[in-house]
């Protein structure tokens, strides 16, 4: 299975009590699918998964699977205890097409430990694996360690890069190991696809799917000038949305386009009215929100 294009790192759809709201989730996923996204990433580190229990996250995955209509799903295993991770993997294999692993947290392991860590996890799943290099939860996996991990584990088929290290990325892409590379930052869609990447796992895509789908499609068709202009807009949007904290700005923007997925859950912060007014004005000036 090849998964490429514009994938959404989806947020958790909360009700007023902070629990999963299936009706909101169904409407949300339908909105994304209608606008041409090519895959769903569940349990991402940025998507408030840290405020959810293991049971919450599995319920979330099952609900997405019920709604996705065959759209490829990737699931991020986030437990830190091995027994919990193995249990989560076995459940996730029933509902996801690809299992994703990142560095363990909150501890920082040495390179040999990182190699062993991924080796243990990869041998415990029959599914294709995505290696998610996320420095926010530990030190970035350096390129030489990454190459060893990939060479030792044939079932790692995908690599989500959030390091912003283009030198290492070019080294990986020229190393000869066949792997589908995905941008892990909306700020580097243009650079990573131009370097040989296959797409992006995006947050901006949640409120503005057409924008991200279009830049990926334009890049894959080698329309470079048009793609660069679209990337410039995405950078502006990303800056605006980040005014609302890690996820609050994305949730508010979704409300502005008519998709309610609830308020952020503790410890993530809600937006004050001043920030909302500023964000709405700036998104309107870009033509993304109607007056």
TrEMBL record:
<protein>
    <submittedName>
        <fullName>Dihydrodipicolinate synthetase</fullName>
    </submittedName>
</protein>
<feature type="active site" description="Schiff-base intermediate with substrate">
    <location>
        <position position="160"/>
    </location>
</feature>
<dbReference type="GO" id="GO:0008840">
    <property type="term" value="F:4-hydroxy-tetrahydrodipicolinate synthase activity"/>
</dbReference>
<feature type="binding site">
    <location>
        <position position="46"/>
    </location>
    <ligand>
        <name>pyruvate</name>
    </ligand>
</feature>
<dbReference type="InterPro" id="IPR013785">
    <property type="entry name" value="Aldolase_TIM"/>
</dbReference>
<feature type="active site" description="Proton donor/acceptor">
    <location>
        <position position="132"/>
    </location>
</feature>
<keyword id="KW-0456">Lyase</keyword>
<dbReference type="InterPro" id="IPR002220">
    <property type="entry name" value="DapA-like"/>
</dbReference>
<dbReference type="Pfam" id="PF00701">
    <property type="entry name" value="DHDPS"/>
</dbReference>
<dbReference type="GO" id="GO:0008675">
    <property type="term" value="F:2-dehydro-3-deoxy-phosphogluconate aldolase activity"/>
</dbReference>
<feature type="binding site">
    <location>
        <position position="201"/>
    </location>
    <ligand>
        <name>pyruvate</name>
    </ligand>
</feature>
